[in-house]
Write a structure and sequence with these properties.
Shape: rod-shaped
Structural class: mainly alpha
Number of strands: 0
């Protein structure tokens, strides 16, 4: 093999080596960018979950306070109705007291159920709001990583 042939082979090998190194570097850079996208998605998702849990926790506390308040009020009204029933001077008056108490208790119960329903519906909506775009965000991450 002549010197010229050896030099040509060496030049070709050097070109191929550099092309391979460049391709390896480009692939590594794409892998790092993909990793950064996935880590960013994970961080954003964790933050959304924390926000969602915070909203749900506050709502659970509010619901607990509402249930406690309703139970306390209901017990007080029941005791007052019992005292009025015991103090009734006639059977007719006792029936009126009992009927009035039953009607008021039922109306309060229905009103409280409506409030609890609104509270729970609002809580569900508010709790899922931070998570709303996470599925689309994942699709965007996957598309960005496959396009690169």
């Amino acid at each position: 093999m002549t010197k010229a042939e050896t030099a040509a082979e060496f030049a070709t090998a050097e070109i191929n080596f550099n092309a391979g190194a460049d391709a390896l570097k480009a692939g590594f850079d794409r892998a790092i960018a993909s990793y950064d996208n996935i880590v960013g998605y994970g961080k954003d998702t964790a933050e959304a979950l924390i926000q969602s849990a915070t909203v749900a926790g506050k709502a659970a506390e509010t619901l607990h306070n509402e249930v406690y308040s309703y139970a306390k009020q209901s017990l007080e009204e029941s005791i007052a109705a019992g005292k009025a029933l015991v103090g009734a001077k006639s059977v007719h008056e006792a029936i009126e007291v009992q009927t009035g108490y039953a009607k008021a208790a039922f109306e309060n119960y229905v009103a409280e159920l409506s409030r609890f329903n609104q509270l729970l519906t609002g809580t569900a909506k508010d709790s899922f709001a931070p998570l709303k775009g996470r599925a689309q965000a994942w699709v965007n991450v996957v598309q960005a990583n496959t396009a690169a």
